[in-house]
């Protein structure tokens, strides 16, 4: 059994360097990336798909769903960090570093709140993988993956 941790495909916000909005869909390139991923994973025994319920992750997961004939189980805990009032803002217009360790976006999640949520998501991922006769695909976002790797998957240092 393996857990495939997958970042969603490209969006116009990624391409144009804009803080993502929840409803941002995949770009044409992102749709192609999702289809190529689905084709690649079709040769693996994936038995379950968990995905963030934000549009870009769901669209990526739906490509897997169609190819693998599996339902997508939406999991809000897998959402990207909530940047609150800054969503929709081009990076070039930001006055602070979104990724700075002390940065708390107005109307959004602090790093502490975000990591606590990702910790809960990791517990759900582990539970979903228990006893699974095959692999688990988890479709989420870049900062979620960064948190998972840094807090749960990185070996001793």
Structure description:
With 157 residues, this protein is an alpha/beta fold. It has helices spanning 12-16, 28-41, 55-68, 111-129, 142-153; strands at 3-7, 46-51, 72-74, 135-140. It has a 4-stranded parallel β-sheet, with helices on both faces. The longest helix is centred in the last third of the chain and has 19 residues, at 111-129. It is globular, with a radius of gyration of 16 Å.
The largest β sheet comes out as:
4 strands, parallel
Strand-pairing-aware structural class: alpha/beta
Portion of residues in beta strands equals 5-15%
Helix content: 40-55%
Multimerization state: single chain
Number of strands: 4
Strand order, main sheet: write it out: 1-4-2-3
- What count of helical segments does DSSP give? 5
Q: Measured on Cα atoms, how large is the radius of gyration?
A: 16 Å
What's the N-to-C terminus distance? 25 Å
SSE succession: EHHEHEHEH
Low-confidence stretches: none
Shape: globular
What is the mean predicted local confidence, pLDDT? 96
Q: What is the gist of this entry?
A:
With 157 residues, the chain is α/β, with parallel strands linked by helices. The protein has five helices and four strands; from the N terminus they run E-H-H-E-H-E-H-E-H. Helix 2 (28-41) packs parallel to helix 3 (55-68) and helix 4 packs across helix 5 (142-153).
Topology, please?
Blueprint: E1 3-7, H1 12-16, H2 28-41, E2 46-51, H3 55-68, E3 72-74, H4 111-129, E4 135-140, H5 142-153
Parallel strand pairs: 1-4, 2-3, 2-4
Helix pairs in contact: 2-3, 4-5
């Amino acid at each position: 059994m393996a857990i495939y941790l997958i970042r969603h495909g490209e969006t116009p916000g990624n391409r144009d360097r804009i803080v993502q909005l929840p409803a941002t869909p995949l770009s044409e390139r992102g749709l192609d990336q999702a289809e190529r991923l689905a084709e690649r994973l079709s040769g693996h025994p994936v038995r379950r798909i968990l995905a963030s319920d934000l549009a870009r992750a769901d669209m990526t997961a739906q490509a897997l769903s169609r190819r693998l004939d599996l339902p997508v189980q939406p999991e809000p805990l897998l959402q990207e960090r909530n940047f609150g009032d800054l969503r929709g803002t081009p990076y070039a217009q930001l006055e602070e570093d979104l990724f700075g360790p002390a940065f708390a976006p107005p109307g959004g999640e602090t790093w502490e709140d975000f990591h606590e949520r990702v910790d809960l998501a990791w517990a759900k991922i582990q539970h979903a993988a228990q006893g699974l006769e095959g692999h688990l695909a988890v479709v989420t976002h870049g900062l979620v993956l960064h948190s998972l790797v840094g807090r749960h998957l990185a070996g001793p240092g």
